Amino acid sequence: MVEAAGAAALGIDLGTSGVRAAVLDGRGEVRAVEGARFAGLGAAAAPSVWWQALVHTLDALKARVSLRDVRSVTVDGTSGTLVAVDAAGAVIGPASMYHARAADRAVLARIDAIAPPDSPARGVGSPLARAVELARRPGVRAILHQADWIAGRLRGCFDATDANNALKTGGDPDALAWPDWVAGAGLAPALLPAIHLPGAALGPVGAEGLAVGLPPGAVVHAGTTDGCASFLATGADRAGDAVTALGSTLVVKLLSDVKIDAPAYGIYSHRIGNRYLAGGASNSGGAVLLALFGADRLASLTARLRPDVPTGLDYYPLVRAGERFPVSDPAFQPRLEPRPADDGVFFQGVLEGMAMIEATGYARLEQLGATALRSVRTVGGGAANAGWTALRQARIGVSFLPSRSEDACVGVARLGLFGGVAVCRPGEAA
């Protein structure tokens, strides 16, 4: 049965394996979420496959909820995925994916020589270097990010990007402009879209947007990266709010009034309204647990956790040597000795070590000038582990709040609905 009204915002997430989309009402409550995988449609590097997956996703949404009241449409994409297009927005060749590396060493050297030391456009995976390579294809008239191209098709206009997707391509998130050194790297400014604040209104949907079922009154908004959208999905929206992702690695992200860029720690800031989202990633995390204990033992070991009885073990759990955040040392050694005979105690000691790393990570961000931590939300596989949560909260010492959602499509829908400046729902404290 199709629900008739209340759909105010559509958020579209272009992930690594497929598309997901969410419809929210005017208060930001989720009305429906649907998705489609790239598998079976073609190669994930083919933009036509992204579009097909989006069409399938919207068809599934329309079977559940009417889109006639949708007023905002916002798209996020994988950070660093790029597309070359002609004057009409038609794709020229395959996309340059987020995990690709630039082949032209001369371009990489030029960027290293002229880019600011804290620019995330540097390095072997530099999206800027890959953009220079894409621009050499015959007939190219614009270089777009993944989210730009989908939003452009919905609008019928390929002239806009957002400050967060532009960041790794060299964009200045404060000036909302491409600095002169980007042209010095070999990328003509005429090939680059204008930079807008995430959540800013760009323009009404065009012919293709109407054809896939969007209403004439819908407006396409500037989007963001999938990582930023995932943060916003949790409900974190005030300075000092943080999100920890407990996946194969341990990632912390903090919403700050102050911009933090510390390349030695792999930290750089995305812009969210008039604030900044700063984060860092440790090499510790779920991959260490799998290496030490295997997936089949985690549940039984978790049942033996005693958060009120600390082990006193001083571990720094890593799979191999090397750490970047909160310690920046490529030769940093794992610390997993002494190992007790009881694997339950050993397991708790490892989790205590990870909790220490997380707490140190937030302390590091504050030391570098970020807004003081006030709350933590958790996403990822470890979020449901109550014992681990108790260990973490004891070390971090702030409120742990539930996440409203882990779906990036929900976060990017909220960005369009609330404009990116105050993404709390009406009636909530700002």
TrEMBL record:
The keyword Kinase applies. Keywords: Kinase, Transferase. CDD domains: ASKHA_NBD_FGGY_SePSK_AtXK1-like (cd07783). GO terms for biological process: xylulose metabolic process. The keyword Transferase applies. GO terms for cellular component: cytosol. GO terms for molecular function: D-ribulokinase activity; D-xylulokinase activity. InterPro entries: ATPase_NBD (IPR043129). PANTHER family: D-RIBULOSE KINASE, SUGAR KINASE. Belongs to the FGGY kinase family. This is FGGY-family carbohydrate kinase.
